[in-house]
Amino acid sequence: MDTNIPLSAQPRVVIVGCGFGGLKLAQALADAPVQVVVIDRNNYHNFQPLLYQVATGALEADSIAYPIRKIFTGQQNLFFRVADVQGVVPARNLLQTSIGEISYDYLVLATGSLTNFFGLESIERNARQIKSIPNALNLRSFLFENLEQALLTSNPAERQALLTIVVVGGGPTGVELSGSLAEMRRGVLPKDYPELDLQQMRIILVDEGAAVLKPMSTASQQDAQRYLEELGVELHFHTTIRSYEHKRAYFSATEYIETANLIWAAGVNGAAVPGLPDEALTRNKRLHVNRWNLVQGQTNIFAIGDVASMVTEAMPKGLPMLAPVAQQQASHLAANLQRLIHQQQPLNFTYRNKGVMAIVSRNQAVVDLPKQVHFKGFFGWLAWLFIHLILLVGFRNKAVALVDWAFAYFSSGQALRLIIQPLRPRGDDLGKRAAEVLAATPDYTAPPPAIQEPSLNSQEASCLAGD
Description:
Blueprint: E1 12-16, H1 20-28, E2 35-40, E3 44-46, H2 51-55, E4 65-67, H3 68-71, E5 78-82, E6 85-89, E7 94-97, E8 100-103, E9 106-109, E10 113-115, H4 121-126, H5 133-152, H6 156-162, E11 164-168, H7 172-187, H8 189-192, E12 202-206, H9 218-230, E13 234-236, E14 243-245, E15 248-250, E16 256-258, E17 261-264, E18 268-270, E19 287-288, E20 301-303, E21 308-309, H10 323-341, E22 356-361, E23 364-369, E24 373-376, H11 377-391, H12 395-411, H13 430-439, H14 458-464
Parallel strand pairs: 1-2, 1-9, 2-5, 9-20, 11-12, 11-17, 12-13, 19-21
Antiparallel strand pairs: 3-4, 6-7, 7-8, 10-18, 14-15, 15-16, 22-23, 23-24
Helix pairs in contact: 1-10, 5-6
């Protein structure tokens, strides 16, 4: 069943994922003689590079998200469905999803990446990550809940753990998040929390390598490190967090740091779709693709963006997992799909490096451009703002982001320090303590036992879940 997608005499191109690559590809096929079907688990396009600003209250969540249906308004050959992809059956040209099976003539996987916890179960279970808008909103709530709790505790060790933030991973996400937190500690939190001694607040950036921003130039690495140190971020290189239990981040079996805030930004895996042969997968679950972005061993399944591993002479370890790579691959694949439809030979993809950049804090950023051009500081910061503003989808998002950034720049503060998704306290934390306080309160009566809800059959549960 094709979930009410009309049959067409034209070839059907199914695109899984509406990130940078999937979005660009669908737009590039607007005038092509194909039927385009876009599948995504969310009904919005998410601008991932700015998630850390949502997590630290610098931007609203809806400033970096845009409704997919609105993006494609007027594109007559496109159909969009919200669904979770469960697998692919190459032999039958079928995509299995939570809303039914969808047939395809060409399948493009643009599923992006997932957080890689390297098999560390305690970290996966207890640490925070920042790969989606819900992640970012939960992290923001979690950080500010811990600051509120730090006001209430009389235990110095517990307060210190609540005021200690450990960020694992010295890539762009870890650097930008650490810098934003340090800037918030300096200019924002003293006004909000005058009762707290914020000199006790520690921001620790941990990386197993010898420098931050490993993909960037040595000059950018050194400048970024200096900016972080000037902001008071503690840098721990050649260091690995091996487990995280009971507010203790363990470096070894006996060495640990007490922290209630462990944020994992140490690595990613490709978000591969089940059903493809094991030989098509790399060690980090990306898909081997050739220079046409065709998945190894397949004839009509392609992959672009973070999930695709394309090895070239210039990039023997594969192309970097960056938005420009996904967008360039999408444009190239759109042209190649039309060549295939017209029984022409596809053309090889060549990546054009347009540079990389990372922001550390206000007026402090590093930029690497081709031909070893490097600049930093205020001009790097302006370049970062301009590029990210241009790449945001939708005029409203650009305008809101610009206003929020301008407010933060001239007021030295973020206005969005909201706890809107309170997280449940863990184990021996607030829940037990609150129950003890209530039980000791005069005239307190324990609530009656909860009424057991009747069990639902699978069809009823599916209806309630909105499937």
